[in-house]
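Response to reviewer comment R2.3. The reviewers asked that we include at least one raw input/output pair. We reproduce the pair for Extracellular metalloproteinase here without editing.
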Amino acid sequence: MSYSSYVDAENEPATVIAVLDHVDRWIYEVYPFGVCSPADGVRTGIEDPHDSKASSFGWHNPLNTITNIYDTTGKNVVVGAHSTVLGGQHPAKSPNESFIFPYVPDIGTLWDFYEAGVTQAFYVTNMLHDLYYILDFTPEAGNFQMNNNGEGGLGNDAVRINVQKNGAFNNGVFFQEVDGRSPEMNIYPFDKTDPMRDSSFEVGILIHEYTHGSKCIQLSDRMTGPPDNRDCLSAFEPDGMAEGWSDFYAAALTVKPEADHNSTYAVSAWGLDNSTTFRLRLYSTDMTTNEYTYSSVNDFNRVHQVGTVWCTMLYEMLWNLIDKHGKNDNPRPDMVNGVPTDGKFLSVKLTTDGFALQPCNPSFVQARDAIIDADVALTGGENACEIWRAFAKRGLGASAVTGEPRADSFDLPGGVR
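Raw output as returned:
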């Protein structure tokens, strides 16, 4: 047997925080990370998916010595389903390290397969925690985990996730908290089919909500301004951009292996039983499929509409960078000197780094500049042409300015082509 022990030596008396058994294997039967929904792949057993640095204590709490049961009450997220009959939150439980539960799409009731849905949500959100850690959303930056292992920030703030939540349909919300307090994420069923569909299996909504808060962004709001400020994306334009950031992370992290520059992304297509999208337009680099530009925001008064414009710009950047650097279809990036080697993860990394460089309540122009500055800091500006072309194509070029009415600018700065 091989074990690692983690001890709190800062307080008296010293206590053991966790003991990891390196022989035991955690197995989750899920749709693998990156698979959008049951329409796009099959469930499989994923073994030991946690990242040893991002989740050095593992994903689960130690075995409950009273019940001898493991469950989805974990160190980064606490996930359970809500029952309209039984009430309360019900985690998935297992007498061992195998979380393997049956699931048949479009058969039976939501509750018939709640353990599979809870396991899917637990797996995806933990994968996001570990990926965002790799991309520098760490404890010091205000991420979400119970024990920060001496890495700065405040602990005791694992995300509480409620799946099959009653009270609404076709939606999800994220109730933000300051660093050191656990936020809450509610995922509601889709009611567009009979039987209803569990949104735990619509991976895009899990990514969107984990990345995004109801009026803030989990990732960007805690990195835009200090982690103890919940209001740095509260004005109308940045609040709308928050929706766009969440859509972008979902689109980028579920790019299909066969996808290319001409591929589109539809928000919640499976859950809604609709091959189009939950948004006004598909995300696309084709101006006939999605014609939105910076000035389109003038016509909108809802945050999701504004977010669609912002995500459309980021989607252009995603494919410009993939065209230049290629695409890594693995769940985590290959890094060289802190830089992802492929365009998909590089686009996410630059966007993430931009959060820390933009001011509180940024405008479109300021958020664009933060991404450009992030590329200068990370790569020396190697991708300036690809980034500028993406924004300029959608009207946020060099001459674009903040203010109303917004006017399109399709020009590039000097030295960029």
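Residues 23-211 form a domain with the Elastase; domain 1 fold (CATH 3.10.170.10). Residues 1-10, 15-23, 213-218 have pLDDT under 50 and may be disordered. Further pairs are available on request from the corresponding author.
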